[in-house]
From TrEMBL:
Keywords, in A-Z order: Chromophore, Flavoprotein, FMN, Photoreceptor protein, Receptor, Sensory transduction
Highest taxon of source: Eukaryota
Pfam families: PAS_9
SMART domains: PAC, PAS
Domain PAS: 24-90, 245-291
InterPro entries to which the protein is assigned, alphabetical: PAC (IPR001610), PAS (IPR000014), PAS-like_dom_sf (IPR035965)
Name used for this protein in its record: Protein TWIN LOV 1
Record GO biological process: response to blue light
Stretches assigned to coiled coil: none
Gene Ontology molecular functions: photoreceptor activity
Gene Ontology CC: one annotated term: nucleus
Gene: LOC120280718
């Protein structure tokens, strides 16, 4: 077992990001690791639930150890050298890699490595490395069977070297797998989202990011409940300065073009533009001040700055104790097709508000399982 500075590993993320960065990273379902090159042995400091599920390891078996623990007799030495070179040169790399699960079974992944930079004395320096791992599906019928009787060095393709001296599990090792365009695009997309999250939760001198007050992520249970609601909506927290967005649905991203990570911590005013009616904005402010619901028609703008008429319904959302925890804003583009049940926009919005209220109340009454403002 490798030894490491456990305190340094534990503090690696929280020393550079807000205390709840782990909660934010846990919301990603994908398989990825974060490592710290400044700690002796370049250990893993975060392992996602997707990675743990894929590899069969528990978090305590992985965190604090070097990523070489996942290599085995079939891992290409040349690939390992390419990864080491990319780390030394602090650059991004995508490479097909044969890794091993906890039970010793081999599996092919697309290994996407990228450096995580942070400002330091007016310059950027690498503080972590992120490795996203996408399974590569089987595309070849030919296999090589690894058995305990095989003790010679074997070569699969001209690139893959097998040293079977210590392999006694008899697992089947497949031929070289090349990642397709889907795997490559998926890995790059996931890496981009994670890097955006790290940037958003990174600490500056004030502990804030670019003047944005960072909301603590919602609990996984509440995120799951809200994720089942198939409508464009956001939750905002009236107890934080500037009433920032703390949740944005997939429907909101589809309507506006903004990803969830681009809007968390921001006030909804970024949707406004030169044609937005200030009288309508004042009507919204008055309703929030009076803790009442309101429905308005508002000219908003997507990320690409194209305008759309937003049929907006805003309503307070109370927790189990009756206090306002959030405000929900439900958006429907005027002129968009009705849903399959033929409901009017007003009925769709009221239905969404009801679903959000049920989710918040059920979670907030569950013995403190959710982060709710009071």
């Amino acid at each position: 077992m490798e030894t490491c500075d456990h305190r340094a590993v534990a503090d690696s993320l929280t020393s550079r990001y807000c205390d709840w960065v782990h909660d934010a990273l846990e919301d990603f379902p994908d398989a990825f690791l974060i490592t710290d090159p400044a700690i002796a042995g370049h250990p893993i400091v975060f392992a996602s639930r997707g990675f743990l599920s894929m590899s069969g390891y528990a978090s305590e078996e992985v965190v604090g150890r070097n990523g070489r623990m996942f290599q085995g007799p079939g891992t290409s030495r040349r690939s390992v050298m390419e990864i080491r070179e990319a780390i030394r040169e602090e650059r991004t790399l995508q490479i097909s890699l044969l890794n091993y699960r906890r039970d010793g079974s081999p599996h092919w992944i697309l290994f996407h490595l990228c450096p995580v930079f942070a400002p330091c004395d007016g310059h950027r320096r690498v503080v972590h490395f992120l490795s996203v791992q996408i399974p590569i599906p089987k595309r070849s019928r030919r296999t090589v069977v690894v058995s305990t009787t095989c003790r010679d060095a074997m070569r699969m393709d001209a690139d893959l070297e097998l040293d079977l001296a210590n392999d006694d599990r008899g697992f089947e090792v497949e031929e070289w797998r090349e990642a397709g365009e889907w795997e490559k695009e998926k890995a790059a997309s996931v890496a981009g989202e994670i890097l955006s999250a790290l940037a958003r939760y990174g600490k500056l001198s004030s502990g804030k990011r670019a003047g944005v007050v960072l909301p603590r992520p919602l609990s996984s249970a509440l995120n799951i409940s809200l994720g089942r609601i198939k409508q464009s909506f956001v939750l905002t927290d009236p107890h934080l300065p500037d009433m920032p967005i703390v949740y944005a649905s997939d429907g909101f991203s589809s309507l506006t073009g903004y990803s969830r990570l681009e809007v968390l911590g921001r006030n909804c005013r970024f949707l406004n533009g030169p044609g937005t009616d200030t009288k309508v904005l004042n009507q919204i402010k008055d309703s929030i001040k009076a803790e009442k619901a309101c429905a308005v028609r508002l000219l908003n703008y997507r990320k690409d700055r194209s305008p759309f008429w937003n049929l907006l319904h805003i309503s307070p959302v109370r927790n189990a104790s009756g206090k306002i925890a959030f405000y929900v804003g439900v958006q429907i583009e005027e002129g968009s097709k009705s849903n399959e049940h033929g409901l009017s926009p007003e009925m769709r919005q009221l239905g969404t508000v009801g679903q959000v209220k049920v989710a918040v109340r059920s979670i907030s009454s569950g013995a403190g399982t959710s982060r709710l403002s009071s």
